[in-house]
Amino acid sequence: MPVFFQQQINEYTRLGVWKIEETEEFFKGNVPQHRQVTHPHKRLQHLAGRFLLQYLFPDFPYELVQIADTRKPFLPDEQYHFSISHCADYAAAIVSRHSRVGIDVEIPVEKILAIQDKFMTTAENDEWNKTNLAEADSHQAIQTRATLCWSCKEAVFKWYGNGAVDFKKHIVLLNHEPAAEMIGCSFTKTDTALSIHYRRFEGLVLAWVVS
């Protein structure tokens, strides 16, 4: 099984990243498709993400998943809280019995640097770069850090789940703790303090929130 990464966060919460190597038929034989997706690769990503939910918790009732007006998938009785993300040939999911969660997976690309000022403040850039001085001269490292910051904010956005979020105004990255692979965050829309956890892999970044 192509499980790229998985982690038991606590007794009630698990996450996993799946490297998609299977055909669409494999996933269709194991998981229902909850919405019409016309693009073949996006449909494959969609099915792989749903497959991960039951891989992490075998009793996950994905046949009951509904889609909110904000496009966030949910279970009506909140038996589980969950979040799904996908990019390229990867799908990621986090599932919890008790906590609200959000997850995001991204592949660093050049265009992130062109939009960085739209989602990062000067203070955030200063804090992040201050703890990464050894990498400061590497263009690839700067690109990866910018992607990770975006991924952290995207994970918070999915954790919130109600839309209408300004990434620069409402999601403020604070103290960065690289040894713990964690960054503090203030979600100003609800005045909530969060801890964002992350992993950096070769050519891939992952961020998640549990609260």
Number of H/I helices? 6
**What's the level 1 CATH class of the largest domain?**
Alpha Beta
The CATH superfamily of the largest domain turns out to be 4'-phosphopantetheinyl transferase domain
Regions with little confidence, pLDDT below 50 for 5+ residues: none
The pLDDT mean sits at 90
| CATH level-3 fold name of the largest domain | Ribosomal Protein L22, Chain A
Percent of residues in helices: 25-40%
Question: How many DSSP E strands?
Answer: 11
Summarize the helices and strands and which ones pair or pack:
Blueprint (H helix, E strand, L loop, with lengths): L2 E8 L2 E7 L4 H5 L11 H17 L9 E2 L5 E2 L6 E7 L2 E7 L4 E6 L5 H8 L2 H9 L8 H22 L6 H4 E7 L4 E6 L4 E10 L2 E7 L1
Antiparallel strand pairs: 1-2, 2-6, 3-4, 5-6, 7-11, 8-9, 9-10, 10-11
Would you mind describing this structure in some detail?
This protein is an alpha+beta fold and 211 residues long. The chain folds into 2 domains: 97 residues, 4'-phosphopantetheinyl transferase domain (Ribosomal Protein L22, Chain A, Alpha-Beta Complex), CATH 3.90.470; 106 residues, Ribosomal Protein L22, Chain A, CATH 3.90.470.20. It has 6 helices and 11 strands. The protein has a 5-stranded antiparallel β-sheet. Strand 1 and strand 2 form a beta hairpin. The longest helix has 22 residues. The mean pLDDT is 90.
